[in-house]
Amino acid sequence: MKRYALLPLVLGALLTAGCANKPVEEPLAVEDVASVRYETSSLSNKFEIDNVQRALAGNVLRAQVTLRNKSSFTVSYQYKFRWYDANGFEIQQQGEPWRPQVVAGKGETRLQGLAPNPAAARFEVWLRAE
Amino acid sequence: MRVVMTILLSSALLIGGCSQVQYGDSTAAETLTVDFGSTDLQMIANQMVDDLLAFPPVVQMTMQRRPVVFVDQVQNRTTEHIDTENVTDSIRTKLIQSGKFRFVDMNVVERVRQQFDFQSQSGMVDPATAVAMGRQIGAEYMLYGALTSITKRSGNTRDVYYKFTLNLMNLETGIMEWASEKEIRKTKSRSLFGK
After folding, report:
1. pTM above 0.90, yes or no
2. ipTM over 0.85
3. Comparing C-alpha atoms, which of B89, B176, B114, B105 is closest to residue B137?
């Protein structure tokens, strides 16, 4: 009987410890937040930016943006990457198509892009509703 | 009679007023039918180029020099009439624009030969300015691939699956250095009412 009385206490202690150890999420850098742009403003309420990663493939810029669908409903949207050189000029304005994509409710999606050439220094990923 | 003429004129003006030309966004997603369309072409070209340029051995290969490539025709193994050269043209253009590869074009060889003949044999071109023969650079790599499709129909629903495969072969060794696939699935349901 005494053993069963202790069980809720132990479980409670474990749960509390679990909560205390939850890592504190670092806020995204201003540059990362600015790299996700919405052509349809209502989409900005549906998505949350989880992570923005940049890397070099040789000397060409690569980008990956992880987005989370905050809503419980499936969201159909289109996205395209836009690349800018060091002076802010857009590279190949008509270069990329709008790519249709679907993300499930509460789902996560990763958008990947590779710059058209080594001149790219910065990117933006644009989202719009279908 | 005048009334009839007026009605005819008004209707002619109305019909004429209906036609309107508008420019649209060439990069917008096109979902008119499930057939192979402009968005499929653009997505395939983009995906292939991104894959090729990000593939680590290719990154290493193109760091110091720009290899010379030629594009073989992409086989159309679908039931549709698709201009596959259009897809390879887009891929080639993007690869040239990346500054990582150079290309030789086998489609213009005959016209180049005519120009060579004109420069060397017509007697109209100053021999000092005529281009030298036999100095063209041979391709090191060949890009080739295929486009296939699977179509299924059930009641009012039509489902099409496209797969585009592209390979890069080293012409000297015969080794396939890189390969990539892009899959596209499109479904169209016809409802009883509406479109």
Report:
1. no
2. no
3. B105
